[in-house]
Amino acid sequence: MQKRPTTVLLGLSQTLAWASSYYLPAILADAVGKDLGISRGTVFGAFSVALLVSAAIGPLAGKLIDRWGGRPVLMSSNLVFAIALAALSQAQHPLQVFAAWALMGVAMGGGLYEAAFATAVHLHGQGARRTITGITLFAGFASTIGWPLTAWLNSSFGWRDACLVWASLHLVIALPLNAMLPATVRKPKDAEDVASRPEQPSVLAADQWRSAAVLMAFVFAVAWFTSTAMAAHLPHLLRDAGATAAAAVGIAAVVGPAQVAGRLIEFSFLRRTHPLLSSRLAMLAHPLGALCIGVFGSSAALAFAVLHGLGNGILTIAIGTLPLIFFGSKGYGQRQGLLMVPARIVQAGAPFIFGVAVERLGTGSLWISAGLGLAASIALTRMAVKMRR
């Protein structure tokens, strides 16, 4: 199985999956709330339910991918995405909005990055790092494509038809793309990639496994908490730092391209380095940006956005590659799902928790996220020491 077609297939389908789920509420929350007579916060509460459901579904989806490959799981997720989006388009009551997003959480648990990464590992084993990086390069444009398209659909046809269009795209585009994936990994004698990359077991002794897993889960939780908190509150933070409203929105928009740039750096300059090194550098980027804001104020807002985006882009790849390096490819999918459970839980609460900090501390709240980043960097250093031993 050639890696490039796999990367393209998964990258395109992931772009559509992220654009139609994770990035949907930012554009449609106001319209949904106004139509149904509920607050924007209530709509985001339903989205948080989806994240919690995805945390519960992730380990099961990973286990199924380990056993059967990613094609049936990802195809099933497209069907569930379509049903959930169609259900959301017909919602007339807040409870129906929550039910539709809970169903969306099932699709997210089996159809976003963790499932795509597990599929890549199932197909390519220890050689999946470049495929994982390539997938994130494609999907890094999910917000760039999804936000304008959703906004245009909403303004032209309404939020209900926007949901129906996304549901149709899952059936017409994403489902066929995932259907073209191999059903399962070929045997070594039939696949050069697999034959040239034998199974690599965990690099850790049994007594070190649990400790490394806890540290890794903590790092992933910090990465997702910070990413989600910044996605929800970055423009507000930049205004608190002294930027104008227009400048704050413009600077916040730089985060997306910076994430793609970070992934390009990982794909090119850092591809021969150990993922632990690139992860530690990436984890320090957000604290460095917070320091710039603390020292220079609004004049460093652009530097902060670029540093945060670069670090976040590389960390997305680390979430896929670190478990592969430390624990090997056997059972990768289920293990990845379990490691991401804490991350999904804190991600669900990040907008509210960090929002309280922003209201009380203003830009001082960045010291919280910066402190978490430093703690995660220390955890990664401990993992590096364990690996050297």
Automatic annotation (TrEMBL):
The keyword Aminoacyl-tRNA synthetase does not apply. Pfam families: MFS_1. PROSITE patterns: MFS (PS50850). It is a multi-pass membrane protein. Keywords: Cell membrane, Membrane, Transmembrane, Transmembrane helix. Residues 6-388 form the Major facilitator superfamily (MFS) profile domain. The keyword Transcription regulation does not apply. This is MFS family arabinose efflux permease. InterPro entries: MFS, MFS_dom, MFS_Efflux_Transporters, MFS_trans_sf. It comes from the Bacteria. The chain crosses the membrane at residues 43-61, 73-92, 98-120, 132-152, 164-181, 212-235, 241-260, 281-304, 310-327, 339-358, 364-385. It is found in: Cell membrane.
